[in-house]
Amino acid sequence: GAGVSQTPSNKVTEKGKYVELRCDPISGHTALYWYRQSLGQGPEFLIYFQGTGAADDSGLPNDRFFAVRPEGSVSTLKIQRTERGDSAVYLCASSPSGGNQPQHFGDGTRLSIL
Amino acid sequence: GENVEQHPSTLSVQEGDSAVIKCTYSDSASNYFPWYKQELGKRPQLIIDIRSNVGEKKDQRIAVTLNKTAKHFSLHITETQPEDSAVYFCAASEGSSNTGKLIFGQGTTLQVKP
């Protein structure tokens, strides 16, 4: 498919564990965004990549959260020492080159911390 | 930073009626305003967007209006159908960064009764 792909679709883990969430953007899109959506809320911005670099990480809640995009395509969001409050749907979006261009979302990863 | 308020939180209409959802934003530098439709357990889907150099945009049964002076924008759905039932989110770009970072409203649950 040509859309944004996220894996896994669901992740259940215990408090204190480390998790990695993967996003494969639309081919050729240089801009990649991570958002977090809690139940009944709108998506909240976490981090924005332009190519390989994190151009804006102002939405990361604390230093347990980290994201990479080493080759300017696939991105991985990493969460260390998970807490129950990290439970949410983590959404990835991409756009052709950032700025005010339409962002297309993936299906998200539903993360549950027990 | 940008703040987006969305009203109403729930909206119920009869099939064939019109539905209007309103949003206000705080950052006068914001210049991009997309609307997303999200069905239960699915990804947010972009349905229409508007940029600050335009006052109105229409796509079949969906229209969006923007009042830059008052800093509010609205989604209008005419001739509603049961398949329009979903949660709708407005968003505004963070004007100061120009990265495309979106700030979302809290969402409106639209129910179209057959």
Instruction: Tell me which oligomeric state these chains represent.
Output: heterodimer
Shape of chain B: globular
Beta fraction of chain A: over 45%
State the end-to-end CA separation of chain B.
Answer: 41 Å
Which structural class matches the secondary elements of chain A?
mainly beta
| Uncertain residue ranges of chain A | none
How many strands appear in the DSSP assignment of chain A? 11
Tell me, briefly, the overall form of chain A: globular
How many E-type strands of chain B? 11
- Structural class of chain B, by secondary structure, is mainly beta
Mean pLDDT of chain B: 95
Weakly predicted, low-confidence segments of chain B: none
Radius of gyration of chain A: 13 Å
Describe this structure in words.
The complex is a heterodimer of chains A (114) and B (114). In chain A, β4 and β5 (44-50) form a beta hairpin. Chain A is built from no helices and eleven strands. The N and C termini of chain A lie far apart (33 Å). By secondary structure, chain A is an all-beta fold. The model of chain A has no long low-confidence stretch (mean pLDDT 96). In chain A, the strands form two sheets. In chain A, strands 2, 4, 5, 6, 9, 10 and 11 form a seven-stranded mixed β-sheet that branches. A four-stranded antiparallel β-sheet of chain A has the order 1-3-8-7, with no helix packed on it. Chain B has 114 residues and is an all-beta fold. Chain B is built from no helices and eleven strands. Chain B has strands at residues 4-7, 10-14, 19-25, 32-38, 45-51, 56-59, 62-67, 72-77, 86-93, 102-104, 108-113. In chain B, the strands form two sheets. In chain B, strands 2, 4, 5, 9, 10 and 11 form a six-stranded mixed β-sheet that branches. A five-stranded antiparallel β-sheet of chain B has the order 1-3-8-7-6, with no helix packed on it. In chain B, β6 and β7 (62-67) form a beta hairpin. The relative contact order of chain B is 0.34. The model of chain B has no long low-confidence stretch (mean pLDDT 95).
